[in-house]
Amino acid sequence: MNPTIELLNSHRSIRKFTDEPVAQSTVDTLIKAGQAAATSSFIQACTVIQVSQGERRDALAEMANNQAYVSEAPVFLVFCADMKRHKLACDMHDADMLSGYTEQFLTASMDCALFAQNVIVAAESLGLGGVYIGGLRNKIQDVSDLLELPELVYPVFGMCLGHPDQNPEVKPRLPLDVVLKQDRYDDSQDAERIAAYDGDVREYYKTRTGGNKDMTWSEQISGMLVKEARPHMLPFLNGKGFLKR
């Protein structure tokens, strides 16, 4: 163990923040830390939009299923997968860009995820806290219109950041043997391992909610995956020039 590993293992989603502002110089530092993340073939395909508090932020909160902390957080960032600047690079050299490939969608989206993870780890190292907001994809076309995103740019997720005003427990993760396999994919014992893990998750939820939530991990996942998962995403992405081939 060292301070870096301890910091990573202590991650919690923070949804309540104090009124203390976060200096813009700190935000700039966090974004530079994000830029230092690995990037596939040096494409650097992440653009971050910082949205100030006000009407635009309130609209994003509504679009994200009325999550109040989107409005309330001192800092709100939207991480966008951006291939438009690559079109510009091609234009600068009179090259015809071949776009719409699934691989380009994957690498741009992964760039955003790696960038954002650096940002939140850097923020936590400074005593800040935050939470990812995937709910922006509930009304992704509205989000795109509000932020005036052009073709070849789409919002992957948002992130609230600020000084924590809560101290939740660390949520238990799956057993190591379930996620770390040796030499081949062997899930012959995963069911019993997950069943044991379910007990830890049930206890976590009971503690966190004062007994109001009584649910295991497998119950939560099975309930989620019998429902449609944002079927509007594919036509939206096609319209933005992604996932065409």
TrEMBL record:
The protein's name: Nitroreductase
Name of a matching Pfam family: Nitroreductase
GO molecular function: oxidoreductase activity
Organism: Marinobacterium stanieri
Lineage: Bacteria, Pseudomonadati, Pseudomonadota, Gammaproteobacteria, Oceanospirillales
Nitroreductase domain ranges (all copies): 10-163
Keywords: Flavoprotein, FMN, NADP, Oxidoreductase
Family indicated by similarity: Belongs to the flavin oxidoreductase frp family.
Keyword Oxidoreductase: yes
The keyword Oxidoreductase is annotated on this UniProt entry: yes
Top-level lineage group: Bacteria
Matches recorded under Gene3D superfamilies: NADH Oxidase (3.40.109.10)
